[in-house]
Amino acid sequence: MEQTAHKSFGKFLIVWFGQLISMIGIGLTAFSLGVYAFEKTNTATSVALITLFTFLPNILLRPIGGVMADRFDRRTMMIIGDLGSAAGLVFILSIMLTGDIQLWHIYVGVAFSSVFSALQSPAYKASATDLLDKDQFSKGSGLVQLAESSKFLFSPIIAGILLSVTTIEVIMIINIATFLIAILAVLVIRKSMKVEREEKDDRNWMTDIQEGWREVVTNKGVLLLVIIISLVTFYLGFLETLIGPMLLSFTDAKTLGTFQSVSAIGMLISSLCIGIFTMTKKYASVLVAGLVMCGLAFSLLGVSTNIYFIIFAGFLFLSSLPFVNMSADVLVRNNIANEKQGRVWGIIGILSQLGFIIAYSLAGFLADHVFNPLLVEGGALASSVGQIIGTGPGRGIALLFIIAGLFVILIAIITSRLKMIKSLEQSSDIASPPDVGGLAHD
């Protein structure tokens, strides 16, 4: 594994900026492909399958990506990951240009990109620890959340406008270009940073994966936190997959893009606050409060078809999410040694995201065959629940959102009473500044 000779927030910002641009491009394609699939089939299942194939290979292969991030140059792994992700989009684009594309072509292309994203993501996370001092972790996490929020803040409204004036092929070309910008940013860092390498380790990869697994499961607080996040992601997976079909059932793509972008201003504000104001304690309390607000906003998304009310609920939801992500990220990062973070983030990646995988697999079926039929005219709940939240296309998805939000609030209440979660924060407070990866502080 490599070690950086010194830390630099400026170099972190260069890598972060490349990822910010790349995230905007990814958001453009994700939004456009979802709208394209829904307009072709008018079913939530097709949208859910695109999301599933985009996500599943990434998560299943992330432990291997984590081991590779510890064994090889992390910046090289990021470059390879971005190149492979771009290649998957090139495949979809080439088929589209022939005029004979089928949905399964899209599934194959996004799955191919997802495989290479599994190499990029753990390397990027571990590189953040390479480049940041401990007291910069929360600030760095806030900026990472800001980059993540760009998929919701900028991409939807840009994609909605672009779809009204140009084609999905042009949008995919733009996304491919953003990957190249991300690669260029990493190349700048690669040339400017001195690297020290440890002696080559002859252990097989499975040994490293097992070590990452042991590092997670032997720290009971980290393991419990990962389980909690996985339960939350199960419910959030329904929101991520079905918010488009719900809104498209009574509005158009441009309005959907506007909703996502305007409501994401909440995520921008929260991420900026986290990035500007350094937090050094109370992460467990912030985690619980963030989960409560997320759950409340989640439920509010389903109670009305008024687009302004939905935007308010979306704003509240996305403004809460960065605090949840930052708190969980820092609690884990402060309790895991840097030289093991690549493999550990790989293991945590697959465990914490299992909820998403299950939700993506179930979302289309539940929406099209269970919840939506309940709230159509004459449906089983049309005369009861339907009198409150309305009936018609997409209202069953709204009911699913209300139920899921209530469960997220319940998870928050349980989390607030768990001593092992609080112990993670206490461990962080009493620990001396670690010699992470054998590196000295500036």
What are the SSEs and their pairings?
Layout: E1 2-4, H1 9-41, H2 44-71, H3 74-98, H4 103-131, H5 137-153, H6 155-165, H7 168-192, E2 195-197, H8 205-217, H9 220-248, H10 253-263, H11 265-276, H12 283-300, H13 307-333, H14 341-352, H15 354-374, H16 386-389, H17 395-415, H18 419-430
Antiparallel strand pairs: 1-2
Explain what this protein looks like in three dimensions.
Pfam families: MFS_1. There is one protein chain. With 442 residues, the chain is an all-alpha fold. It folds into two domains: 185 residues, MFS general substrate transporter like domains (Growth Hormone, Chain: A, Up-down Bundle); 226 residues, MFS general substrate transporter like domains (Growth Hormone, Chain: A, Up-down Bundle), CATH 1.20.1250.20. It contains 18 helices and two strands. The protein has a two-stranded antiparallel ribbon with strand order 1-2. Helix 1 packs parallel to helix 5, helix 12 packs antiparallel against helix 13 and helix 12 packs antiparallel against helix 17. The longest helix is centred in the N-terminal third of the chain and has 33 residues. It is globular. The N terminus and C terminus are likely disordered.
Describe the structure using short key phrases.
single chain, 442 residues, mainly alpha, Growth Hormone, Chain: A, 2 domains, two-stranded antiparallel ribbon, 18 helices, 2 strands, globular, disordered N terminus, disordered C terminus, cell membrane, transmembrane transporter activity, transmembrane helix
Instruction: Give me the side-by-side strand order of the main sheet.
Output: 1-2
- The CATH class name of the largest domain reads Mainly Alpha
Tally of separate domains: 2
Helix content: over 70%
Quick one: overall form? globular
- Radius of gyration, taken over Cα atoms and rounded to an integer in Å: 21 Å
Low-confidence stretches: 1-5, 194-200, 428-442
Kindly report how far apart the N and C termini lie.
21 Å
| SSE pattern | EHHHHHHHEHHHHHHHHHHH
Can you summarize the main beta sheet?
2 strands, antiparallel
Mean pLDDT: 80
Examine the secondary-structure arrangement and name the CATH architecture of the largest domain. Up-down Bundle
* Structural class by secondary-structure content: mainly alpha
Look up the CATH topology of the largest domain.
Growth Hormone, Chain: A
Q: How many strand units?
A: 2
Q: In percent terms, what proportion of residues is strand?
A: under 5%
What is the CATH superfamily label of the largest domain?
Answer: MFS general substrate transporter like domains
Question: What is the count of helical runs?
Answer: 18
Transmembrane segments: 12-38, 44-64, 76-97, 170-189, 221-238, 258-277, 284-301, 307-332, 344-367, 396-414
Keywords: Cell membrane, Membrane, Transmembrane, Transmembrane helix, Transport
Subcellular location: Cell membrane
GO cellular component, one term: plasma membrane
